[in-house]
Amino acid sequence: MNTFLAYINEHIEIIYIVILSIFLGIEVIGRVPSVLHTPLMSGANAIHGVVIIGAIIVMGEVEPDDIVALIIGFLAVVLGTLNVVGGFVVTDRMLEMFKKKK
User: Residue 86 has what pLDDT?
Assistant: First the structure.
């Protein structure tokens, strides 16, 4: 527990930046009009594809006894994949709305 608290005290500035960027991202995404949703979702899918590749590379470089890094890397791969798949599903559903009905 002491090592965890020491780590937090050592990296408190980075933790503040991450928390502030989370709030900023929520505000920016919440104000996007629905017309721009499809192009932005395509960009987000591309970014999360890069996240998945990065997580796989990091997991390959981690030592086998570093369980925490492996778990975080695995979660990054799983959550990134879910986000990409969900984004494509939402984009597909939105594009279906613009097709002519038979």
Answer: 82
| φ, ψ (nearest 5 deg) of residue 78 | -65, -50
Amino acid identity at 71 = I
Domain boundaries, the chain: 1-31, 37-102
User: CA 15 to CA 94: how far, in whole Å?
Assistant: 36
Question: Percent of the chain, pLDDT > 90?
Answer: 12
DSSP SS3 for 1: coil
- Mean pLDDT in each 10-residue stretch from start to end of the chain (102 residues)? 88 91 85 71 75 87 88 89 83 78 74
Single-letter amino acid code for the residue at 5: L
DSSP string, the chain: -HHHHHHHHHTHHHHHHHHHHHHHHHHHHHT--GGGHHHHHHHHHHHHHHHHHHHHHHHHHS-TT-HHHHHHHHHHHHHHHHHHHHHHHHHHHHHHTTSPP-
